[in-house]
Amino acid sequence: MLTFWYEFASTYSYPAAMRIERLAAEAGVAVAWRPLLIGPLFHEQQGLTDSPFNSFPVKGAYMWRDLQRVCDREGLPLVRPSQFPRNGLLAARVAIVGLEDGWTPAFSQAVYQANFVDDLDISDPAVLAPLIAAVGAAPEHVLAAAHSDPVKARLKQHVADARAQGVFGAPSFVTADGELFWGNDRLEQALEWAAHHQSREHA
Fold first, then answer.
1. How far apart are CA 171 and CA 156, in angstroms?
2. Do 20 and 34 touch, CB atoms closer than 8 A?
3. Quick one: how far is CA 15 from the chain centroid?
4. Which residues span the domain enclosing 93?
5. d(Cα 45, Cα 30) in Å, to the nearest integer?
6. Could you tell me which of 12, 72, 159, 198 has the fewest CB atoms within 10 Å of its CB?
7. Are 115 and 67 contacting, i.e. CB atoms less than 8 angstroms apart?
8. What is the residue-level pLDDT of the chain in tens, covering all 203 positions?
9. How many CA atoms lie within 13 A of 101 on its CB side?
10. Closest to 152 measured CA to CA, from 100, 66, 92, 69
11. Number of other CB atoms surrounding residue 170 within 10 Å
């Protein structure tokens, strides 16, 4: 099992989300998708009130160029969002609604497509509604559930759980034995570690 911590505004979470299902299937590792808000952790741990890529422009310039290289290598389209970072709160809550019914991965990938390819406002229910419908769920029902207290509480719990696991950025991957890997470029290593841990458990 590999826990996948991701934030919809996170640039490097985009290629990770688009790759993880295929790579995990090849590695024989199950993935637990866990949307969260990384902003609270940035603020607590680093005193940041904005993305570090905005707070440090030279780092931001590098990131956008690097992300383009990453996406080119993976065959993924990329359009720099006209607003960055976008508010991923509602999308994260919707993704939580989908966990029990299994459509969270497909919905999450669609949200990344909307944000980093179609340059759409993923905080807008009108943008999310067709993405919800596309995964076979009822938009009105899901959006109502996303505003419910249990879903709000679960998202807060995700942030608390991520904090407890040492997460400080997104994407992050945590193996069943608690090993933390940070960044899209560590996905393969995380899956290799998780698969090795599984094989030892079943030996």
1. 17
2. no
3. 10
4. 2-201
5. 30
6. 72
7. no
8. 999 999 999 999 999 999 999 999 999 999 999 999 987 665 566 665 567 666 778 998 999 999 999 999 999 999 999 999 999 999 999 999 999 999 999 999 999 999 999 999 999 999 999 999 999 999 999 999 999 999 999 999 999 999 999 999 899 999 999 999 999 999 999 999 999 887 655 54
9. 14
10. 92
11. 26
Cβ neighbours of residue 53 closer than 8 Å, sequence gap 6 or more: 11, 59, 60, 63, 64, 84
Tally of structural domains, the chain: 1
Length, in residues, of the chain:
203
The tokens describing 114, both together, are 């909307």
Report the CATH number that the domain containing residue 104 is assigned in CATH: 3.40.30.10
Cβ 116 vs Cβ 79: under 8 Å: yes
The burial class, CB within 10 Å (0-12 / 13-18 / 19+), for 106 is middle
